[in-house]
Amino acid sequence: MPLLAIRHVPDLVLRTICARVENFDEADLGVLSADMLETMYDAPGRGLAAPQIGLTLRIFVMDVEWKTGTPDPRVFINPVITNTSVDRSVLQEGCLSIPGETCLVERPVSLGLKWQSLDGTVATGDFDGFAARCIQHEMDHLDGVLCTDLPSPAKGSAA
Ligand code: ZN
């Protein structure tokens, strides 16, 4: 499987609001998501959204466990956050599209997510810790938002 080229800022594809995946039959989503995962592992990273490889569709892949030795590749299509915790945390985030930079971002600690799998089946789940953090970062990519856009709590500008 080929590695895909990761787009970096200021590539405008990273600023595009991505379209929902509507056709689960003809779109070769299995090949695409496998290539995205391989590209993410190679980078190396723990999350990769479609616009980061130049495709403006609402898809991201994630594996928050592989660096600890137990791979857990996940594919999320048309993801929607259904609820977020009141508890929030502040953490440094890195982004494969913004090499050499990190952002200090405040986000909810846990969330509920609804998404579709490769065959279009709707799934739901609750996530916390690094997975919840990663999901929110990748979801921002699907709306053309980068972590460098978000208010830094260190600057006292967080809501
Ligand atoms: Zn990113």
Describe it for me?
The chain has 2 helices and 7 strands. It is α+β, with helices and mostly antiparallel strands. The chain has a single domain (12-157), classed as Peptide Deformylase. The radius of gyration is 15 Å and the shape is globular. It starts with 28 loop residues before the first helix and ends in a 17-residue tail after the last helix. The mean pLDDT is 93.
**pLDDT averaged residue by residue:** 93
Shape: globular
Cα radius of gyration in angstroms:
15 Å
**Count of folded domains:** 1
- Estimated helix fraction: 10-25%
Q: What is the β-strand count? A: 7
- For the termini, the CA-CA separation is 44 Å
Global structural class: alpha+beta
Question: What is the topology?
Answer:
Layout: H1 29-42, E1 47-49, E2 59-62, E3 74-84, E4 88-94, E5 102-108, E6 110-116, E7 122-128, H2 129-142
Antiparallel strand pairs: 1-2, 2-3, 3-6, 4-5, 6-7
Bound molecules: zinc ion.
